[in-house]
Amino acid sequence: MDQGPRRRPLRPQRTPSQQLPMRQRPQGIHPAASPRRFLPNARSNYERYTSLAKDAARRGEAIEAENFYQHAEHYFRLMREQC
User: Quick check: is 27 in a domain?
Assistant: First the structure.
């Protein structure tokens, strides 16, 4: 008897005291390691979300436009940090 797709059980979330110590954390995933690598991607995402926000504003979707502007601001801050 098939009961449908099986799902993996969810892992419990770790509390801050259960976080891995710094020496055991994976290396090479922190963006500060090579900030120039992310700059073109941040710039294109900033332009994309700004364009989406302007389009939503033209359609009268104020909440959607604000959401896109917040995303664009995030990428703007990344660009400002990396220069």
Answer: no
